[in-house]
Amino acid sequence: MCFKKEKIVLDLIVQYIDRAEACIQSAETAIQFYLEGDLKQAKTAARLTAEIESEADLIRYDIRDKLYLGAYMPLIREDIYKLVENVDKVANAGEACSDFFLNQRPTVPEELKLQFQKIVQKSLGIMRPLKEALLCFFKGQCPHEVAHQFAKQVGLKESEVDNLEWDLTKDIFTSSLDFSRQLHLKLCLDAIVEVSDRAEDAVDRVVLATLKSVF
Q1: Are 121 and 28 in contact (CB under 8 A)?
Q2: Per residue in 136-194, pLDDT tens?
Q3: What distance in Å separates the CA atoms of residue 185 and residue 182, rounded to the nearest whole number?
């Protein structure tokens, strides 16, 4: 009976991770369409992002309820749910980033668009190695060293985003734009890098959970 409960929770977690990844991918699509000037497609992708995030939340609630009803040993239930919550923060950051562009409509100068497109791709693209690390841990089908390597990839990508953020911040505030537009673009940039920041938090918890399982 215990094994059956754990199998149900594991299946839900895999579904949740898939939905979280789809949410981030949809958010990235929405933002890229916005930066390309295709507002209609951007709106459609943003609406889809919100729908997927809501679907993911329903799965997360189901995971919480199943854990509450006795799936897994008591000592690891909290670790499992906190890890799911950390992934939820990544999905939420992706949706919030998409909402920022579609609600506040920042005007990105042509000379900065390429940099914004690149950092969007890098920050939101971090979900791919994060997903691999999560599945590696939850399914238990790869050695701990492999999970650690995926976690390391997330950390390296987050460092790349930090470097791009530093350069773009400098270019924003040394541009000829008025200060209010500079501030708005910096807020926009903050929303973008929030995704990779939250992904790094999530993978840190994967590493912690892996260390606990080793010992």
Answers
A1: yes
A2: 888 776 666 777 788 888 999 999 999 999 999 999 999 999 999 999 999 999 999 99
A3: 5
For residues 126 and 154, the answer to whether their CB atoms sit within 8 Å is: yes
Average pLDDT of the residues of the chain: 90
Amino acid at 10: L
Residues in the chain: 215
Tokens of 215: 């010992």
Alpha-carbon distance 134 to 113, whole Å?
32
Residue 84: C-alpha distances to residues 62, 67, 88, 127, 176 (Å): 12, 12, 6, 14, 43
- At residue 94 the predicted structure's pLDDT band, cuts being 50, 70 and 90, is very high
State in Å, rounded, how far the first CA of the chain is from the last one.
Answer: 26
Q: Report pTM.
A: 0.91
Q: Look at residues 93, 85, 31 and name the one whose alpha carbon lies nearest to residue 61.
A: 85
pLDDT in the model for residue 213? 63
- Judged against a pLDDT cut of 60, whether residue 32 lies above it is answered with yes
Residue closest to 136 by CA, chosen among 115, 118, 150: 150
Which two three-digit tokens encode residue 82?
A: 């906190």
Q: Which domains does the chain have, with CATH numbers?
A: 2-214 (1.20.58.220)
- 63 in Cβ contact with 9 (< 8 Å): yes
Please, where are the H alpha helices in the chain? 2-35, 39-68, 74-104, 110-124, 127-139, 144-173, 179-214
